[in-house]
Amino acid sequence: MYCFFARKYGIVAHVNERSSHQKPVVTGAGIVFCIGYILYIGYLFWHKKSIPLHLSVAAILLAIVSFVDDIKEIWFFIRLCIHFFAVFLLMWQLKNDFQIHILSLRLVDWFAVVFLAILFVGGINLYNFMDGVNGMIGGLSLAFFISTFFINTFVVKFIDSNFLIFLSIPCLIFMFFNFRNSPACFCGDVGSIFLGFMVMYVLCSLIIKTENFVYILLFSVVIIEAGYTVLQRLLIGQNIFKPHRIHLFQLLCNQGEKSHLCVSSFYFGIQIFLGIFVSAINYFAMPLFLQYVLSFIIFLGLSIWYILYKRKMMGGHLLEEGKPIREFKKLVIGKE
Hints:
Elements: H1 2-8, E1 12-13, E2 25-26, H2 31-46, H3 53-71, H4 76-97, H5 107-129, H6 136-155, H7 161-178, H8 188-210, H9 220-235, H10 248-254, H11 260-283, H12 288-313, H13 323-333
Antiparallel strand pairs: 1-2
């Protein structure tokens, strides 16, 4: 039904420098995730349970702005302001969920709040960057929600399980239409931004509840793929807000001629492995120090593999062709 509506009103993703598709495809289908959350709100209302007001306002606001942006591009600064406003609402929701008393915060704590807000906005946008090939964003999100559902059920209760279920089901529905060689629709910013926002909320809730930062490993696929690519583009002097095709998953599909489905399945498998690992070490109550050591080894190993393999895919030139790097070499050794 949505695809018919989108085609009628021209809500399609056209081919550009960033695209891995060859023809226009209906976009904005990520609205199904927003519908799933609205149904969750209805479920809470029907059972006379407390509704997370600040989270709901922020999520719906992000969804509306992102859907409009899918139809007609909104000025980046406006979107950024909306993202920060939504993140501060998210942080207020966390304050209410875990009874954090803001009056007891010192000045240095407020600086930390601002820093966290910047990290959250960055994390949401990194998640958005992962929406590049068929099945990627849906697969990563489904793996994340499955992992956190297991943790919530068997390790530590930190969130309403129904919240995770109402977000997981839309992932399955979306994957049915997107996880194909010729997808019927794309997620669009309305879906990827919304999912990134919800993932940040779930992850932060888990970390606050357990006071265990090992759970950041659940977000490490996004950090390594999207975060390292942003850093790479900064180092070679590219505008990070312009479309590009140098994510590893894009290189695998375009230069490597790998199937979108194989690439997405590979990333899904890594995310599931990380979910199983983090769940297991906490289920069996591994000593915290050992958890950190093993998690660091895994993160470092994935990072090294990613950098080396990506450099190989780019012909051995990961940073060498960037203007900032050439200028640095000229400054240090006196020649390019």
